[in-house]
Each structure stands twice: as C-alpha cells, then as structure tokens.
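ok so I'm stuck.
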Amino acid sequence: MKPGSSQTEYEYEENRQLAGILSMLIWISWGVYLVVLATALIFKDWKLTAATLAGSALLLIPLELLKRQRLRSSSVLVVLFTIVTVTVIATIGQGIRDLAMLAFPLIFIFAGQALNRNFYWLSISLSLAAVCWLALGEIYGGFLPKPFEGGISTWIYLILITFILLVAAIAVDTLAINTRNSLDQARREVTQRKHAENELALSERKYRTVHETMRDGFCSAAMDGSILESNEIYRTMLGYSETELSQLTYMDITPEKWHALEADILENQVLKRGHSTVYQKEYRKKDGTLFPVELQTVLLRGEDGSPCGMWAVVRDITERKLAEEHLKRSEAMLKEMGITAKVGAWKVDLGSMEQTWTEEIYLTLEVDGSHHPSVGKGIEFFAPASRPVIEKAFQRAVEHNEPFDLELEFISAKGTHKWVHIIGRRDIENNDIHGIFQDITERAQAQAALRDSEYFVKGILDSLTAHIAVLDDKGVIVAVNEAWRKFAKENNSPQSTDYLGINYLNVCQSAMRQGESVADQVDLGIRAVLNGTRSQFTTEYPCDSPTQQRWFCMTVVPQHRPRRGVIVIHEDITERKQGQQSLQSLNIALQTSLVREKELARTDQLTGIKNRRHLFECAEHEFEVAARYQKPLSVLMFDIDHFKKVNDAFGHAIGDQMLQALTAVTRNCLRTADVIGRYGGEEFIILMPMTKAEKAYVLAERIREDVSALSLARPNGIVRITLSIGIVEIRPSESVEDVFRRADNAMYTAKQNGRNRTEVGDSQQGLIPANQLSDPSKDLT
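replied:
not stuck anymore, here's the structure
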C-alpha cells in the first residue's frame, strides 16, 4: 500500500520499516541455516540436515504473508519459526549449541522491532525456555558431548547468557517504545499538517471560486493606483489582458473629468472610513470607448495598521443606463401616444349593452361620427370566419370573466379587408367589458409576405444540390432542405426524416466519442461561428457511403435574422477531389522524373560517378571554399595505362567492366568529403578538400596499389590494369582549367617515367621527388 491510499503516511512508514526488518530476519536466518546445512553435510549428520531444511522451508510461509502485506502474521511466524528451528538445531547438532544460544539476542532485537509488546515477551519466554532446555541437556548429559566440561562452567555460562538476554530484551523493548513514541509524534504532526493544508486548499478554492464566478468585476490596487489583481469579468469589461492591466493604474482607465471626484472619495471616505459608498463614474476601454460603472472601494491595511492597498467590486451599468434612457423615452412616447396614437379604445356596458368607441376605431372602421355603435353592429364588421371567434370570446368574458387577446380579420364600411388586434377584459366593479382595438393590417401583410418569402426561399434551397441545415443558437436543427433529407434517406440514417429538433452539436460529440476525428473539428468550428469568434468555418472531409467513396466541403456561416444561429452547408466535392488527387499523382510522377533526369544529367552512366560537367561544377565550388577560408585542396588525375590494349584484346565490354571495378575500388578509398568524377574516357579526377599534396600522395598510392591488385579471368587471359597518377595543389586565384591542366601534366610525367606510378607537381620546382613524400603505408589522416 502506498501513500495517498487509505493508510496514513505514518502507517505506511511503519509498515515499510516492519517489512524491511522481517525481510532481513528471514534472509539472515537462511544464511545461518546454509552454514549449518553445509556443516551437517560435511559431517554427514542427516538429522541436522533434515532439521535445517525443514526450518528453511517454514520461513517460506511468513515470506508469502509478507508479500501479501499481512505484516503482523508474518512477523509472529518469523520469530516463532526461528526460535523453534534454532532450538532444534542446537539440540541435534554437536558443538554448535553455544553459537545457537548466542543467536537468541539477535532474535530478540528483531522481535522487539517487529512484534507488539505481548508477542515480544512471549518470544522472550520461549527463548528462555529453549536456553534452559539446552543448558539442562548439557548439565545432565542428555545431549551429545560439546567442547567444554564441568557443570559449574555450564551454570556460569547459563547465568551470563541469561543476563545478556535480559539486558538485550530490556534495551530492545525500550528502543521499541521510543520508536513507537516517535512514530506517534510524527503521525500527529503529519495529521496536523495535512489538516492545515486541507484548510488552506479549501480556503483558496473558495476564494478562487468567488473570484472567478462572481458576476461583477473585481480588482485590487496598490496605494499608488497600480492594478495588482483582477478577475476575468473585470478584464473583459475593459478589453485588456491581465499583463496589460498590471502595467496601468486605475487613473489610466478613468477619464480625466472623474479624477477630482475619485480623489475626494479616496481622501474623505476610503482613508477615513475604510470604504466608500457605492458611487458611479466612467471607465475607458482599451479601444477608447467610455462606459458607465458602479463601484465600491474598500481599504486594505497591513499588519501595522497602515494602508497597503485597495480592492473594489465594479459593475458595468451600461445596460441599466440604456434601460433608464429607454424608460424615459418610453414614458415620453407613451405620453405623446396618448395624444396622437391611433390605437383605439372601446367599452361595452353590460347593463345597457351600449358600446363606446374612441375616434381611432371610427377611422379604422372607416365610418363617420354619426354611426351609433352597438355590440351587434360591431360584430358585423368582422369577417365571416372571425365572427364566431369574437362572439365566443365575448360570451366567455361575460360568463366566466375570462380576458381575451385576439387577432382577427374584419371588413371596413368601405369594403377594405383589414386585420385588427383586439384585447378585452371584464370589469366586474363597473359591470362592463373594455379593451383596445389596434389596426395591425400592415403587420399581417408583412407576415403574409414573410411566409411567401419563406416558401420562396424554401423552394430555392430545395432546388440546390448542396445539403443545407439551419441551426439555432443552441445547435438545434430548425430547417433542412430536400437534398439533406434525400442524403439521409439514401444513407440509412437512424434519425427522423426531417432532422428537425435534433441537436447537431450533440451528434458531433457522439461521433467524437466513436473516434471520428473530423467531428471534433466540426464541433469547434460551429461553436466558434455561433459565439462570433469566427465569421466563417470551412473544412473538407471524406464521407464514404455504402457504395462509393465521397468527399464533402462543409461551410458554416452565421445567421442573424430572423433568429441567431448558423447555416451549415455540405457540398459534394468528390469530382474535384478526384481531380486533385489525379493531378497530385501526376505532379509526383513528374517531380520524380525531373529528379531522375537531373541526376542522370549529372552522373556518368557507366561508372555512376559525376560526369565531366558536374565535376567542373563541384570543382568551382570546392575551389571557392578553399580560397575563401585559405585551406589547401589537392587534385588527383589518373589514367589507365595501355587501356586501348585491354579493349583491343578483350573487347569493350570487358573494358567497361574494368572501368566499373576501378571506380568501386577508388570510391572505397575516398573520404566523405572527397569528390570523384570521370574526366573523359579512362581519365578520372579526385578533389580532396582540406588536404595537402603529401597527404593526397598517400591516398593515390593506396588507390594505385588496390587497382593493381584487380584481375578478371577471361578465356584468352587474365585482365589487369595499372594507373598513372598526377597530383597538384591549387594556387591562389587559379582557375579550374589551369589546375586540371597542371594535374594532367603531372599524370603524363608519371607515364613518361614508366607508368604505374604517382607524380606530385610543385608550383616552383615542377615535381616533388617521391623520397620527400609521406610513407604511402600511413593513414591519410
């Protein structure tokens, strides 16, 4: 069991120490038994051998209990089995009883650490009984002889051993008590510390929870006004990040016209009373916009009682101010409406059944003031379909005091069809029914036009091949087009046919749990468009049907009217994707071909090394690097001796094989930085950066000797070749052609001097004698 489980830290430490003590006692016992077993085998004492093996086997039981964390049972069995085994061994063995009795103090020490007090003193009693048994057996000759004589010596020996055992037992018991007391103290300290840490963590969580979840802004500031801490609401309110706010003072975000007021509040309220009253002022956002806030400031004091900072709870009251302004405008508008509004009022006296209209109703019904209104005449203005509705509503208002709020069609005196919003309720005290009468013809016409527009838009959407769905601000599908329905039906969708009412975001999250990686991207994209952090979201994804592989392009755009939400468009782009994939495959093939052609243009086809043109390009680069850094560079040019005779005697195919073999041998001798190329025919050039002629000579001789060892058996003889090699170092401002020309001269000097040799050209003296060059057997490095 480990810390952090149901055990405390103290219990874990105590168990860990106990397990170590038990393991040590078991292994020490096995070590002693091993020595006893070896002694028994040497002297062929089979009883002792059997007793030792049995005692060793018994210790496997507490060892298994130890592995299963049953420490108390394991500790009792370890001590018990050890005492019994030592007693039996001492009884049977010759000359080892003294050693056995001296082993009991060691057992006491381990027992004192591993057992509680009751079991410990029980083990002491068993051990003393074992000692007495062994001593009495010695005194009265019950055992085999041992290497000392006399009863007095034995009694003295017994008294000393007993005294030692008692002293060891008392000391170990004292040690065990002290150890347990220390562990108890440690347990109490750990418990207190854990309690303090938990209380601190709880307090901090409460503070953080209040700090981050409060609906108002919160900030703290030093006495010089610098902002020290703020919550997310406060930062969002101002548009600053936490780092930006830490570089400002509260005066920086307060318009100058409020500075005097705030200074007065700080001096006369905060510093005197410890807090301010709730007051209003303005803040300046990061973009310069001013907005009203309401706040209260509280003073913070240090341990010495002096002011050390302030904190404030700030509320953005922009909406409240707007509401107050709106209320003022509404009151003014209502007052004006009382004079100029066209909303009419009506009343029916239930006693006389007489009806009263305001002027606006006469205008709406297009009748003059001579018209005498009544309930019957008033109902006649409603269209035939609306008359039963208003009659029923009027009757229920009379009989059951039920108010009504209806939108009905009526026909004016001039035959104009209009729509009216009529509201009525019964006034029992005055025994009448009264209400308002408002012409809503324009609104009804607008609604009808909107319905026509919706049908028109729906027709257009249904004619599109793209799959389109409209989601509200919660992600719920409120409309889909015919292509969407058709796709769902063709792909055996388990959802309803129209998908209306299904939360698209929940569908995405369900797909995410099933391992669909694109669902996570779609979910985040839709949410980003919904919350306004993105103006549009687009992604392409594969969507395989049961019969074919397909690709779709998903586009999400915001919708602001008539409701806030998003429009999700899925467009089938399978043909475009297939075209792109075909084009990509062609581009890869073309690039591969171009790389291959470029490599072929720079490589000698027979030998696989650089051709003449590429060799010159590499030489130009290496010469420039050597000149820039003033480093040596050697050039080797070699030619196959009498190569024409090889071609004439064995054929050009054999000659080509020898050229390939020569190239392979040479490349094996080169370093990574060295460059080899075919200069022409059987002539080759090697560029050796950072190498002087003496070192190049070593490589040249190695190549020459390895090539000389080449042979190719043919029916008409054995083919062998040799090389003539010329070496030069480049000179400052020397061209590639000039260096190659000097190398060629050195190579022909080697041919003139007998071929199958290496000559080094010198810039002042022509050629360097071979006896002045390095030993060819030495390594190039």
